[in-house]
Design brief:
1 helix; six-stranded antiparallel beta sheet; mainly beta; 16 strands; globular; 225 residues
Length: 225
């Protein structure tokens, strides 16, 4: 077969080492030699001797039913082989988490991760407030975390002199050293009159970085599969 479809631009490259790599802008490849964790329904292709197990409790004491309070389902992938992961053709990125690091991420942006990573659930509390980014997971340990994002993310530095205000539907994640709170930028009267549409923001203060997706539209809820 000939043609642009079969050019080197689209042809998968041979695996060079176990673990997670970026196959292209919309897809991650994981060369499995043991075990890894992925979002249920995110596998688009695989080859080799792999087993996919939907998990409701734990994998080695780490895997819970959901990454976030929104109930994102996960699966364990075990064996030896290669698997490709994607979600709704969103852009894919890899974060390296080293010992001592801490990365907080919204569950809707989680695609897959090494089984060596652990996490705890974190919430930003606000009476009567619901929205993306208020239920998050804090990843620690040593390993790689694969993320998806609608569009190209913005990585904004946060300093003690300059807090950053982010729409709660646009937040992807943030690094250690940042504290969070909710800020209401409209009065109740302004909201009742229509306002600006920017009623509540997540405030990040301290020293670090915040990752933002270039859209304030409410994200699709994670679908159970």
């Amino acid at each position: 077969m000939k043609g642009d479809l079969f050019s080197s631009e689209h042809m998968v490259r041979p695996a060079t080492a176990p673990g997670m790599t970026v196959e292209n802008a919309k897809c991650l490849r994981y060369t499995v030699d043991g075990e890894m964790i992925a979002r249920q329904g995110a596998m688009v292709a695989f080859r080799g001797d792999l087993q996919f197990e939907r998990k409701g409790q734990s994998v080695g004491g780490m895997l819970k039913r959901a990454v976030t309070g929104e109930g994102l389902p996960l699966m364990a992938v075990r064996g030896r082989g290669e698997a490709w992961f994607a979600h709704e053709a969103q852009n894919c990125f890899v974060v390296d988490v080293d010992p001592g690091d801490e990365f907080t991420v919204n569950g809707r942006n989680v695609l897959c991760f090494d089984a060596t990573l652990s996490y705890r659930i974190s919430t930003v509390k606000g009476a009567g407030i619901t929205g993306g980014g208020l239920f998050n997971s804090v990843f620690t340990g040593h390993g790689r975390l694969g993320l998806v994002c609608e569009g190209s993310p913005l990585v904004i530095p946060v300093t003690p002199q300059s807090a950053v205000y982010v729409d709660t539907d646009a937040i992807v994640g943030w690094t250690a050293g940042l504290s969070t709170s909710l800020h209401r930028s409209q009065s109740l009267g302004s909201m009742l009159r229509g306002g600006s549409g920017e009623a509540v923001q997540l405030v990040l203060e301290g020293q670090g970085h915040v990752v933002v997706r270039p859209s304030e539209a409410p994200p699709h809820k994670a679908q159970q599969r």
